[in-house]
Amino acid sequence: MRISQETVTLGGHELLLRNAEADDAQMLLTYLKTTAEETRFLLKEPEELVMTLEDEKNFIESQNASDSNLMILGFLDGEHVGNCSLMGNPWMRYRHRVTVAIALYQKFTGLGIGTLMMKKLTDVAREHGIEQLELEVVADNERAVALYKKLGFQVCGQMPKNMKYKDGTYADVLFMVCDCTGN
Description:
Blueprint: E1 6-10, E2 13-19, H1 25-38, H2 53-65, E3 70-76, E4 79-88, E5 97-104, H3 113-127, E6 132-138, H4 142-150, E7 154-164, E8 170-179
Parallel strand pairs: 5-6
Antiparallel strand pairs: 1-2, 2-3, 3-4, 4-5, 6-8, 7-8
Helix pairs in contact: 1-2
Domain N-acetyltransferase: 15-181
Organism: Candidatus Fusicatenibacter intestinigallinarum
GO molecular function: acyltransferase activity, transferring groups other than amino-acyl groups
């Protein structure tokens, strides 16, 4: 899915939101590894990220060509800050729902960027007739949970020990949903 490029003013800075392009592949591979190293709240360990440059280029192209998937990159004053995405469902009974995801470099959290990017995802979802946004979040990621609640997401379930870390500890995950129809 493609969007129109958009620039938003944020605290005297410019936040550019745009689709990923094949030329962004190396930057995105670096981003994936860096963000996986910076936080325990993401799905994969850094060493599990083994996509090749060609794999990433193909992934970007498939996202842009999709009718139900979207990847948006954010750039604050020209510097890549992170990504957000919609992942749709191919099955007719599930097409009203999408999974949302977002990850920012840690130095860019707490600045309002996540809020703007999530609002953009919600707007695009509405424009495409999506009725429900869904996500999973590590239960003790308090800042992310607060952001999602502020944006209208509600906790609809919790899975204990959803993730097991290399050190043997576990993390519970909350399942959250948002009705984006305005009802």
